[in-house]
Design the sequence.
């Protein structure tokens, strides 16, 4: 009898320890990155680092601005493609599709989430980069400077990165917003339908409105996946240190900067510190967006289960 | 009748969006198969890389396949040992209802969202500090951290689904919390646990950024945990980076092998969870 109790107590402690250990990891990672990026923060101000435009580690010039801008461009473009396509798909799956279609499509969406980044990257190199290079001449003088391809594009560009990244973000936004639509109480639909609204009016005015916070959460989580994606983007985005002026330009996002230079930066002072600061910045962005999205989702879950 | 036209337009938009999403999956698979299949040969999967392999000479990527399996199974074992107890601790019978559990879940979600390149950089700092080289062990540890949040959060969802009545029946018979957890909950949640494990394994075996600095790369099979180890994602990346078309062809074939493994895992997880489903009380 006592042994059973003892076993129970021991197992309880053990599981608790495992849970605490895994949740503390995130603090360990963040703190380690902070410790190692401190040296550069002591020498230079954060503002100079974030807004500096010269990147010459050998002359101890560490301006992150081109990289931050590259990250922003690629991520924003991916979201421009992914948000409407994913949300429209999720609405269809949740509101129109029958059980059979759902049971075929949802596993495929999961599969899309499971494909490794490097495979997406190779797909980008083989299919998207040539496609972008092919259509670039059509946009020689499109009037809008952001869409101008100039005279020549290799195809390794923000546009290629944005397309590949959008495909990687589809499954995240779709599966979360699908769950959110499913969580909208059926009474909301019934009330609207009984007032004579059509199915589409019900979806537009009642269901989507009720699901809006959840959709926001889905978009935020998709964004946080996109901003940190390394390998796939690195392979198609060109990796040229400059301030991009059009989506046909090459860019050099932050994760690619870390991946390409980390491991060989030991000989240059402050170089590793600068790269780890980049990692820390990424992690803080993820931290904030995850917290925001989860707070919304937890509230929805509570409303559902009381 | 304008509202009906609007519905028609939006329905068409929705169907085309869905077609684009699903179509992109098929296009990705088709492009990889189309380019990879011609370069795929038996020697690619049965031989390790010989001298001059990256210049287009003979050999294969057995070192990368075996390396990826070592990394995958090593990190899977380690991650499972931590995440199953952790997921069980988040049950309502344990700390599930407390404020602490809320923060544990939140920090796991942040860990889940953290880019794998950040794990890679973190792992590298720790290894420098410990005086370790890039090695199998380093790769396994970093991949374990990468898989932990995926496993814990997915397992927790499955464990939550175990009917309360079943647990109560077990408690009524005088079973302790541990006996109920080990004998009823884990068994009942097994299909879902298997799915969670396979999902995490797929994430571990496919990730490149985290093992870029921590696992290294070599043409040989590792003989100990402290040897550097090759991996499939990095094989794709490095071979693609060479200027030789023959070697780039092999990158396509390596990506195809990786894709086949991922597809096989997905099918296996469905089949396995269906099979374990038989032993479940509903």
Sequence:
């Amino acid at each position: 009898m006592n042994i059973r109790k003892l076993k129970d107590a021991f197992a309880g402690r053990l599981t608790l320890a495992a849970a605490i250990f895994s949740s503390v990891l995130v603090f360990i990672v963040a703190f380690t990155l902070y410790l190692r990026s401190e040296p550069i923060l002591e020498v230079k101000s954060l503002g100079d680092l974030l807004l500096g435009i010269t990147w010459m580690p050998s002359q101890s010039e560490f301006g992150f601005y081109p990289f931050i801008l590259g990250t922003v461009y690629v991520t924003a473009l991916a979201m421009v493609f992914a948000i409407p396509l994913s949300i429209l798909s999720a609405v269809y799956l949740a509101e129109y599709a029958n059980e059979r279609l759902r049971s075929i499509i949802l596993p495929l969406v999961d599969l899309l989430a499971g494909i490794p980044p490097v495979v997406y990257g190779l797909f980008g190199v083989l299919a998207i980069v040539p496609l972008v290079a092919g259509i670039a001449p059509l946009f020689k003088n499109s009037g809008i400077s952001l869409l101008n391809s100039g005279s020549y594009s290799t195809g390794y560009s923000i546009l290629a990165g944005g397309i590949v990244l959008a495909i990687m973000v589809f499954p995240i936004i779709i599966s979360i917003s699908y769950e959110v639509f499913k969580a909208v109480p059926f009474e909301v639909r019934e009330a609207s339908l009984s007032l004579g609204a059509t199915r589409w009016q019900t979806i537009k005015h009642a269901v989507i409105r009720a699901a809006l916070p959840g959709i926001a959460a889905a978009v935020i989580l998709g964004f946080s996946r996109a901003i940190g994606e390394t390998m796939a983007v690195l392979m198609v985005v060109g990796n040229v240190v400059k301030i991009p002026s059009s989506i046909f330009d090459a860019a050099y996002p932050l994760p690619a900067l870390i991946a390409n230079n980390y491991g060989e930066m030991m000989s240059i002072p402050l170089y590793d510190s600068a790269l780890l600061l980049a990692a820390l910045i990424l992690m803080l962005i993820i931290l904030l967006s995850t917290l925001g999205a989860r707070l919304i989702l937890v509230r929805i879950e509570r409303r559902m289960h009381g | 009748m304008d509202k009906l036209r609007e519905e028609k337009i939006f329905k068409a938009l929705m169907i085309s969006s869905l077609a684009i999403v699903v179509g992109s999956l098929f296009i990705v698979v088709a492009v990889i198969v189309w380019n990879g299949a011609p370069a795929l040969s038996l020697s690619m999967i049965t031989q390790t890389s010989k001298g001059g392999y990256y210049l287009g000479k003979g050999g294969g990527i057995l070192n990368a396949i075996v390396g990826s399996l070592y990394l995958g199974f090593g990190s899977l074992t380690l991650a499972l040992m931590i995440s199953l107890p952790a997921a069980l601790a988040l049950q309502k019978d344990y700390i599930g209802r407390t404020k602490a559990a809320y923060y544990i879940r939140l920090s796991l979600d942040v860990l889940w969202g953290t880019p794998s390149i950040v794990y890679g950089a973190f792992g590298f700092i720790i290894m420098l500090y410990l005086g370790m080289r890039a090695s199998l062990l380093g790769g396994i540890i970093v991949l374990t951290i990468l898989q932990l949040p995926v496993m814990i959060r997915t397992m927790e969802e499955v464990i939550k689904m175990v009917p309360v009545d079943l647990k109560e029946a077990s408690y009524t018979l005088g079973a302790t919390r541990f006996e109920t957890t080990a004998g009823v909950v884990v068994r009942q949640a097994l299909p879902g646990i298997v799915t969670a494990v396979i999902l995490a394994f797929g994430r571990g075996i496919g990730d490149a950024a985290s093992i870029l600095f921590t696992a290294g790369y070599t043409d040989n099979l590792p003989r100990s945990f402290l040897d550097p180890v090759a991996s499939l994602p990095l094989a794709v990346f490095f071979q693609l980076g060479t200027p030789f078309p023959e070697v780039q062809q092999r990158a396509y074939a390596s990506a195809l092998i990786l894709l086949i493994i991922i597809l096989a895992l997905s099918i296996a997880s469905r089949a396995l969870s269906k099979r374990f489903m038989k032993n479940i009380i509903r």
Notes: The mean pLDDT of chain B is 87.
